[in-house]
Amino acid sequence: MVAASDFVGRDVITVGDFQRDEILFLLDAADRFSAGHGRPLAGRVIATLFFEPSTRTRLSFESAVGRLGGQCIGFAEGAVSSQSKGETLSDTVRVVEGYSDLLLVRHPSEGAARLAAEYADIPVVNCGDGAHQHPTQTFLDLYTIRREVGRLDDLHVVFAGDLRYGRAVHSLVTVLALFRARITLVSPQFLCLPEEQLDALDALGVQFHETETLEEALPEADVLYMTRVQRERFTDPLEYERFKDAYRLDLEVLKHAREKLAILHPLPRVTEISPEVDAHPHAAYFRQAHYGVSVRKALLALLLGCADEVLA
Amino acid sequence: MNPEQSYPVPKLDSGTVIDHLRGRTALRCLQVLRLPEDAQITVGINLRSERLGRKDIIKVGGHELGGEEAAKLALISPDATLSIIRDYEVHSKLDLVPPLRFRGLMRCTNPVCITNTEHVLGGFLVLSNDPVVVRCEYCERSIEAAEFAWE
Questions:
Q1: In chain A, whose CA is at the least distance from the CA of B139?
Q2: φ and ψ at A26, to 5 degrees?
Q3: Which DSSP symbol is given to B12?
Q4: Fewest CB within 10 A of the end CB: N or C in chain A?
């Protein structure tokens, strides 16, 4: 039986750090925090150490902290931190943990959040480390699926686009194994899910199928998870040009979908979803971005041991 | 004595014998071990072995290998044996088994892993002993034996 106290003081580095029951507890807590919450973080200071640009993750965390009565300090890019003077991540962490109660870390290097957690005595939340993991995105993705589809178990989830570099995909695809999902992976070969992730799916006994055609995957999907081809992850600009328009979801393609489908996207979107889809009832991606605030409110309050009043 | 079975290597008075190394792994072991410059080293490559078919052997005179060196050897050639020799006798013998996890010894081969930009020791989990596959505890990339970048 999971209790709020199980979360207090924990680091959130990868989704693998959490059991199925703990994830469900967090999603239930997010429901409670979406309704009302008081000011449980009053007097608490949260530091945002963002060495890489972010809009949704940083602003939704800042919104969550503000709505819970806490205060945010920090920086939104490495160039304005002491990193630009050559300071190491571990030194930055050791300094800033003295100013705050919890660290939110985004960094271009994979494993950066794990390293930060080793040096900090306060909780560290991974807000994205290179192409590796983005666990709070996964929690809000699961929350969105549950809100939009009504359940998490036994779903057919289609991932489309850049599955090679998309950390949101890497985090979500393995955690869906906990919910017996059937998975279809749609990408050009160059951008397919890394072999390790495929091996992990095999090891977890997940039923998955790879294809290059979105139309082929769509008819049986309960959830379509679209992703952007990320220019910043390509070392060769020509390769980016080759793949940037690999998929485009428009109303014509959507005709292949069943009547009930939730379209998710971690955003920002570029050309992979046509704006004409935005008004379609299947389009859940803007609601998904908004749900992030409820999930992050619940997570922060749980990690800092301030959730009892709301959850009582 | 059958000439095929005789080892043209002298007996050690003191030091370390690394035996039952898989065939043609001895030179890689020596590269990785970085033994003292004055160590007297005898190497046998592709010697006949009942257990392995072909095996390598390394004798290191005047130097007793420690735990870190044993861990490296186990990651290159699991099931090798390490014997410490004192006064021409085997003082102690160790079967080399890869550790479950270890720090240092090698670097993560993922160029964008944080351990390659910060000055920290890598941490690794051993996923499989034969063939040896490890996983970086930071970026979680799997690394196969042929790719190991030794410290």
A1: A111
A2: -65, -40
A3: P
A4: N
